[in-house]
Design goal:
The structure holds two protein chains of two kinds. Chain A is built from 23 helices and two strands. By secondary structure, chain A is mainly α. Chain A has a two-stranded antiparallel ribbon with strand order 1-2. In chain A, a hairpin with a 6-residue loop joins strand 1 (184-185) and strand 2. Chain B is mostly helical. Chain B folds into two domains: 3-65, no CATH class; 71-145. Chain B is 67% helix and 0% strand. The termini of chain B are far apart. The relative contact order of chain B is 0.11. Classes of the chains: A mainly alpha, B mainly alpha. Chains A and B meet through helix 8, helix 9, helix 18, helix 19 and helix 20 of A and helix 1, helix 2, helix 3, helix 4 and helix 5 of B.
């Protein structure tokens, strides 16, 4: 315990250094703008701004990128509440009751509750991350290739299961992502697979062009042709304070959302999006007045917003402790760490304590910055939404192309982004989720390598996966998920995920 | 034809192509997998998923019900991006992006000349100054160093 606090002290000495603090502030500011802008979510935002960090050292770069991540989580609530447009996917649930509150003249309190809930959740989950990541990293030293393979497999199954559509569709998208991850040089044999003479594909398809294509470009292709932007409700600063009754109603949902979000965020493969759905369903279930949900229930804003931010920190646990990305954004951050020469995983805490603890401390600082930024500057952020989309999207498009090109100075990446944009556009039209593709792409080389290393260790005996205790537990959990997903099919009953659906 | 049926067929087709292409590499054996082993396994998983989506997709939304009303915009934006990919290293960053922004604002969105031309200059030159000059992210230059 004492050691943890000493380490945190070291972290704060790093995070509060003017240079690092400045980049944390810039990250939070840009992240909030990214969250506010419809269609430019944290994935696209981090992808676009990754090249900006190339000139920085690893600590500053990571602090800035993490600031963008949780800034986008905060910012997403603003458009949800004021315009009923989710700035990013995790804000969908906030739209329902947040916008209903705004229509009733309670936009200010809704924004304050969202910001305070996000602050509490962010801070509490960073404390949890601080205590959980080091022991988990120590435990992860016992992980060999079979355990990693089982963990990655479980992660993909969780992602597919938690998909807002069917598990089958999620699994199909994950398989597509994994297949894309097979492109490039095979690490075990040195064969150049599926490259068709394009030498730039030797290292495989990059996660940045795929993420920007699937999320950024596809969103522009879908949205640019649409008519009339919706009205923007503008709250005044003096209207921001919630009433005592509203604070009472928000209190417990914030704590429930925090606990739930953090736990869901930790599970590799599960996105923070699902934490908001589960939190909303939970609040509706425990509410004494469930009929108010959808009509401006305070708990419908407080719970999902807290869960969303807690899950953001939770997703950092497997990323920092195991080197396994828990979500597509974590996959991008992982890629960013590698670009800066940092190897994430169990040894990171020992090898680079300044970076690890500086990163943790910067999250405390980031939460305070965001609380200060979000409330007084809400009017400023709302003004960004007044820029008509037909003017905004060409600028976003230029930034997308620039961001993708600058990563490797490769036109092949730009063409990949274009292909992924079209794929994302078509898949979104056909109601397929595209996030599993990104995660599959990142996990594919890790999964293949750990599978083949495991078989090399056991002289080709697959029993290695079921004879090692950690591996067998992880595989059993995966099996439970498959059975749960198949149950409604066999018994012809709806499962809990269907009951989460709400009329929007 | 329903959306799920079309998607199932497409997924199956992608899987099939991957199976055929994987044959170019040694498959190895179940106990000693070669470089084609995992791609083949994943391609088969994709075919299986595609078949299941197809089989269970009889009662879903019909493809004709999917609205494609924004397709003209989408094609124009895609065309602009393709031009950018073609021109970036031939014409340089600033000229290429200026052409892209001008096309999108003036031709596709039919915005006023003042706004269109203003952004046509400001966005490419501004982003070039920020990234290339200030942040030292090298961007391609075209004729006359532009």
């Amino acid at each position: 315990m004492l050691e943890t606090f000493q380490n945190l002290g070291l972290g704060f000495s790093v995070a509060l250094a003017p240079g690092v603090l400045w980049y944390g502030f810039i990250g939070c500011l840009v992240g909030t703008l990214v969250g506010v802008l419809p269609g430019v979510g944290p994935l696209a935002g981090i992808s676009l701004l990754l090249p900006v960090t190339y000139g920085l050292d690893a600590t500053r770069a990571l602090v800035m990128l993490a600031g963008i991540y949780y800034g986008a989580m905060y910012g997403g609530s603003t458009t949800s509440i004021l315009m009923r447009i989710p700035g990013e996917a995790a804000s969908v649930m906030t739209c329902i009751d947040g916008y209903a509150m705004a229509r009733k003249g309670r936009a200010g309190p809704a924004l304050t509750i969202a910001a305070v809930g996000s602050y509490v959740a962010g801070t509490v989950s960073v404390i949890a991350l601080m205590f959980l990541a080091p022991p988990l990293a120590a435990f992860a030293l016992r992980f060999g290739p079979p355990e990693y393979f089982s963990l990655l497999l479980l992660g993909l199954l969780v992602l597919a299961y938690m998909n807002t559509g069917s598990m089958l569709r999620g699994l199909a998208m994950a398989a597509l992502g994994l297949l894309l991850g097979m492109i490039g040089i095979d690490q075990m044999s040195g064969y150049f697979r599926f490259a068709y003479g394009v030498t730039e594909l030797g290292d495989g398809i990059g996660v940045v062009p795929v993420a920007v294509g699937l999320f950024g470009l596809a969103e522009i292709l879908l949205t640019a042709g649409q008519e009339q932007p919706p009205d923007v409700i503008r709250p005044r600063l003096r209207d921001l304070l919630p009433s005592r009754q509203e604070l009472r109603e928000a209190h417990l949902p914030i704590w429930r959302g925090t606990g739930l979000g953090f736990l869901i965020g930790i599970i590799p493969g599960s996105a923070h999006v699902i934490s908001t759905f589960v939190s909303y369903a939970l609040e509706r279930k425990v509410s004494k007045r469930p009929e108010e949900f959808g009509k401006g229930a305070v708990a419908g804003v407080a719970g999902p917003e807290s869960a969303n931010n807690a899950a953001t920190s939770g997703a950092f646990v497997p990323m920092l402790a195991l080197g396994v990305p828990g979500a597509p954004v974590a996959a991008l951050l992982l890629a960013a760490m590698m670009v800066h020469g940092v190897t994430p995983g169990p040894l990171l805490i020992q090898q680079d304590p300044r970076l690890f603890w500086g990163f943790i401390a910067s999250m405390y600082v980031g939460n305070v910055i965001l609380l200060i930024l979000n409330l007084p500057l809400v009017g400023l952020f709302v003004n960004v939404l007044r820029v008509p989309y037909p003017v905004l999207y060409p600028i976003v498009l230029v930034c997308s192309i620039l961001g993708v090109y600058a990563v490797n100075r490769s036109l092949v990446d730009v063409w990949i982004m274009l292909a992924m944009g079209v794929l994302g556009y078509v898949l979104r039209k056909l109601d397929f989720e595209t996030a599993p593709i990104v995660l599959g792409l990142v996990l594919a080389p890790m999964m293949e390598l750990s599978l083949r290393q495991s078989l090399a260790m056991s002289a080709g005996n697959y029993a290695i996966f079921v004879t090692r205790p950690i591996s067998v537990v992880l595989l059993a959990l995966g099996l439970v998920l498959v059975v749960l997903a198949l149950r409604p099919l066999l018994s012809r009953t709806l499962d809990w995920r269907s009951r989460l659906a709400v009329d929007t | 034809m329903t959306v799920d049926r079309v998607a199932g067929l497409a997924l199956g087709l992608i899987g099939l192509v991957a199976v055929v292409e994987s044959r170019a590499f040694p498959l190895g054996s179940l106990h000693r997998p070669g470089p084609a082993f995992t791609p083949m396994l994943l391609a088969l998983l994709l075919i299986l998923c595609g078949a299941a989506v197809f089989a269970m997709g009889a009662g879903g939304r019909r493809l004709a019900e999917v609205g494609w009303h924004e397709w003209r915009h989408a094609v124009a934006i895609f065309g602009a991006c393709a031009f950018a990919a073609w021109g970036l290293e031939r014409l340089g960053y600033r000229l290429t992006m200026a052409a892209v922004v001008a096309f999108l604002l003036l031709v596709v969105e039919r915005k006023g000349w003042a706004l269109g031309l203003g952004l046509t200059v400001a966005v490419p030159w501004g982003s070039f100054y920020l990234f290339d000059t200030l942040l030292h992210v090298p961007l391609p230059r075209g004729p006359f160093g532009l």
